[in-house]
Amino acid sequence: MQPAGAAADAERLARASRRLLEHYPAENWWPSRSRFEVMVGAVLVQNTRWANVHRAIASLRAQRLLRPEALAAAGLSQLSEVIKPAGCQSVKAVRLAHLATGVVQAGGMRGLARQSSHALRALLRGWHGVGEETADAILLYGFSRPVFIADNYARRWLVRMGLFDAGSGVAAYARCRHYAEGHLGWNTGGYQALHAAIVLHGQQHCARQARCEGCTLNEYCDFIKQ
DNA sequence: AACCAGGAGACAT
DNA sequence: ATGTCTCATGGT
User: Fold this and answer.
1) Residue A97 and residue A72: Cα distance in Å, rounded?
2) Rounded to an integer, what distance in angstroms lies between the CA atom of residue A116 and that of residue A121?
3) A23: pLDDT confidence band, cut at 50, 70 and 90?
4) CA distance A134 to A119
5) More exposed terminus of chain A, fewer Cβ within 10 Å: N or C?
């Protein structure tokens, strides 16, 4: 059993999450034609707007590079040129190369799909350029695993609601994810929609302030808190 | 021209 | 272990 108060926190979190979903019903949040494309997109979208990522992916598709073997065989300079619209191309080209090579060495997408979520996350995290958030995005949207993405938006949201403050850093990310998963216990579809809603809310409201006070849409944030 | 973007990794406490 | 700084680049 969970300690006293945990049940109340779980209910608050669940209620707030439901309200978020009602007001930010994101559809087609992560468009993709294949699991590998999700993996590629997860790297390209790092610190980047999706609109720019979309162009880079279209470019990759035109070059027939949206397959692990082809991507792994591509040269860095070519790759860098193709993904340019997504920005930070020299960095991301290297990361994509590691990603593609990793997929091939892991036995392709089929080999990856056989892994447990825990094993898969550990494997992905071992690849250069795949951090906590990117790994979880791949798990959630690429491999349909029930994972709560504890990104900056999610962490800030939880802190503002006074529910949970994990601090910062890699370990803090895991603590936050465990907290949310432990209190929500949702399925994959739920976490997919929730992540989208959290990001949309975070982008539109009090994006940079430490607290909701002073936010021009404070009433909305208070509404979410109920 | 400044500032942000659907972070990651290195580095210093 | 945890918190902070740096990197890298297109778009607004």
Assistant:
1) 5
2) 8
3) confident
4) 15
5) N
